[in-house]
Design brief:
Layout lengths: L3 H13 L4 E3 L7 H14 L3 E4 L3 H6 L4 E4 L1 H4 L12 E6 L2 H10 L3 E4 L15 H9 L6 E4 L7 H5 L5 E3 L2 H4 L1
Parallel strand pairs: 1-2, 2-3, 3-4, 4-5, 5-6, 6-7
Amino acid sequence: ASSLSTLRSLAQRWANEGYSHARLRLPDHSDRDYGAIAETLVTEATIAWILDRCPQHAAEIGAAGFHLRSQALAALQERAVPDTMLCGASVHDTKTWSRARELGVDYAMLSPVRPTASHPERAAIGWPEFECIVAAGSLPTYALGGVGPADLADSRGRWAQGVTGIRAFCD
């Protein structure tokens, strides 16, 4: 789902289904193309967009937030964006989850809970490990990886804020 028209359609569908935010994740696009698409979608404001390329650009164009990749957590000394914006992080283990919490992010996406087609090389942590990591503190954490809307009730019984994904929400 990378063309602007497809993203517009998805944003409208998500808004109609009651979702308020979405992360704009376009790994195959250049920074220039990503920026142009981001500016258009943020301006249209069908839903609130969370960007993941440049925190300064996200703030300048009025995005709802910025999402950090797990690799970026170790290098940061402070939160990547002002407190007026959401700040999230992708995490994969206790170390990166704890670092995200230390930086004061608003939420984490812990993955992969189950095996995924997009990252077959990464071992799934499973629900028991997810629970163990998340029970350690007060950082709202979404389950990611092999989960979808049908897993929402079960995930909340396992300390998750909710579930998130790509395929489960785009197909």
